[in-house]
Design brief:
The protein is globular. Helix 1 (about 25-40) packs across helix 4. Helix content is about 40%, strand content about 10%. The model has no long low-confidence stretch (mean pLDDT about 95). The chain has a five-stranded parallel sheet with strand order 5-4-1-6-7, sandwiched between helices. A two-stranded antiparallel sheet has the order 2-3. With about 200 residues, the protein is of the alpha/beta class. Helix 8 links the parallel strand 6 and strand 7. It is built from eight helices and seven strands, in the order E-E-H-H-H-H-E-H-E-H-E-H-E-H-E. It has two domains: about 15-25 and about 95-195, 3-Layer(aba) Sandwich (Rossmann fold), CATH 3.40.50.1000; about 25-90, Orthogonal Bundle (DNA polymerase, domain 1), CATH 1.10.150.
Length: about 200
């Protein structure tokens, strides 16, 4: 089966990151970050945004607190505020066509999971908005693992849920932490940025 993004012939399961990989949610996430962080005097720019790609929102806020030392900044509360702000615009999410094509081409032929640094509520709603919930065999979110990306836990849990050895899993990612996580899990990894 030919898709714009190649699937390795040894692959027995596909694992997709959601934000920025399967779904184009980045503009909405970026705007939510900017709006919330501006209250704390943090000028959130694209370079900073890209450096945090794939890292769960809780650890993102801890990193921002350490870097900028803003006053009255409680990482857990600011993380919730940011996610609430993002949720207001989640309906804007659209599938990233080249990646969506792979998912649709292999649905029913290979087991498919999504592994994300987002929480379960947001991940599930995003998959609903882009209309792929019924195409996914397993979902692993930040709520399901102790260590998020770049640790391999998210993708290892996906492989476990699918019943496929990690070495036969192919991960589709758009962020460096996620790529590191997939490599640490011993999986094949495709950087989708090369194809979109």
């Amino acid at each position: 089966m030919t898709t714009k993004i190649p699937v390795h012939p040894e692959t027995k399961a596909l694992i997709f990151d959601i934000d920025g990989t399967l779904a184009d949610t980045m503009p909405a996430h970026f705007n939510a970050f900017r709006k919330v962080l501006s209250k704390y005097g943090i000028d959130f720019n694209e370079e900073l945004f890209n450096s945090l790609a794939g890292v769960p929102v809780g650890p993102q806020m801890v990193m921002l607190k350490e870097k900028y030392k803003p006053e009255n900044f409680e990482p857990a509360l600011v993380a919730r505020e940011k996610e609430d702000e993002y949720f207001k615009s989640i309906e804007q999410a659209k599938p990233i066509e080249a990646v969506y094509e792979v998912l649709m081409a292999y649905h029913g032929r290979l087991p498919i999971a999504c592994g994300t640094g987002g929480d379960k509520q947001i991940a599930t709603r995003t998959l609903e908005v882009i209309n792929v919930c019924d195409k996914i065999d397993a979902l692993v979110t930040a709520d399901d693992v102790e260590n998020g990306k770049p640790a391999p836990d998210t993708f290892l849990k996906c492989a476990d849920k699918l019943g496929v050895e990690p070495r036969y899993c192919q991960v589709f990612e758009d962020g460096e932490p996620g790529i590191q996580a997939a490599l640490a899990a011993g999986m094949k990894v495709t950087d989708i940025r090369k194809y979109i």
